[in-house]
């Protein structure tokens, strides 16, 4: 597996279509005044973003939510957490598989004929509680974010170019260390607000992410709705320079 040194620019731009909805962070809900025993949680969620990709040449490509939903073949988004006292462990796993055979015009008199894209993003964190009352909780966090993409596509020429087709494939991965903060504030026994922010670097120049959400408690099940933004700045050896993902998300948490 290599870094994002892909020579197929089109493959990476299409890959951004796949990756963007899955690039997310978890603001795990923590019960106030936690006893010194292990507590566990699981989460299922869906991020519905708009995507902006900028190539090294300065070309900006915007990808709509309709583009993503029309091409999805398989989708998995989930997270697990474990906490004891002031410490928490959180792991978030996202997997996408997209396959499309619709004809789509591309620059330079090309037509995209067939696409197969797979992607996975894994975010692992260790959190430590620095402040907690009956109404709020603040945790510091450190961890790593891993992004992997594999793209296969077939491109055909359009008139006035001679008829022809070619296949291209590429794959790559990026590791980044991250640090950040997350917090929660209760508005009532049922309603609460959560916030999350991280920043990191490693094989990318830098990456950062922020989110805010409102949650509602149903005993051991929590429902959430919020807004999330993620940004990547990749080095000059990558096929694209910037990746920006922003939009609303919904989720359900299970506490046990």
Briefly note the structural class of the backbone: mainly beta
CATH level-two architecture = Beta Barrel
The spatial strand order of the largest sheet comes to 1-4-5-7-8-9-10-11-12-13
Name the average pLDDT: 74
Number of strands: 13
The main sheet comes to:
10 strands, antiparallel, barrel
Q: Examine the coordinates and then state which fold CATH places here, giving the name of the CATH topology.
A: Lipocalin
Helix content: under 10%
Under CATH at level 1, the class stands as: Mainly Beta
Assembly level: single chain
Structure report:
With 256 residues, the chain is mostly beta strands. It has a single domain, classed as Lipocalin (Beta Barrel), CATH 2.40.128. Helix content is 7%, strand content 66%. It has two helices and 13 strands, in the order H-E-E-E-H-E-E-E-E-E-E-E-E-E-E. The chain has a ten-stranded antiparallel barrel with strand order 1-4-5-7-8-9-10-11-12-13. Residues 4-28 and 30-34 have low confidence and may be disordered.
């Amino acid at each position: 597996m290599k870094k994002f040194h892909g020579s197929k620019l089109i493959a990476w731009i299409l890959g951004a279509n796949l990756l963007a909805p899955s690039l997310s962070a978890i603001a795990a809900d923590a019960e106030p005044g936690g006893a010194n025993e292990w507590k566990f949680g699981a989460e299922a969620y869906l991020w519905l973003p708009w995507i902006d990709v900028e190539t090294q040449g300065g070309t900006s490509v915007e990808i709509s939510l309709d583009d993503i939903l029309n091409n999805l073949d398989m989708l998995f988004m989930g997270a697990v957490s474990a906490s004891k006292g002031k410490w928490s462990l959180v792991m978030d796993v996202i997997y996408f598989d997209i396959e499309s055979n619709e004809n789509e015009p591309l620059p330079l008199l090309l037509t995209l004929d067939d696409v197969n894209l797979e992607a996975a993003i894994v975010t692992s964190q260790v959190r430590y509680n620095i402040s907690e009352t009956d109404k709020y909780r603040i945790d510091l966090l450190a961890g790593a974010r891993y992004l992997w993409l594999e793209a296969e596509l077939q491109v055909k020429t359009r008139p006035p170019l001679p008829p022809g087709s070619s296949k291209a494939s590429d794959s790559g991965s990026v590791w980044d260390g991250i640090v950040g903060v997350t917090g929660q504030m209760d508005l009532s026994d049922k309603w609460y607000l959560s916030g999350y922010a991280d920043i990191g670097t490693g094989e990318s120049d830098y990456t950062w992410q922020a989110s805010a959400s409102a949650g509602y408690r149903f005993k051991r099940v929590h429902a959430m709705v919020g807004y999330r933004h993620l940004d990547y700045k990749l080095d000059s050896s990558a096929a694209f320079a910037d990746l920006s993902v922003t939009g609303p998300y919904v989720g359900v948490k299970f506490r046990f």
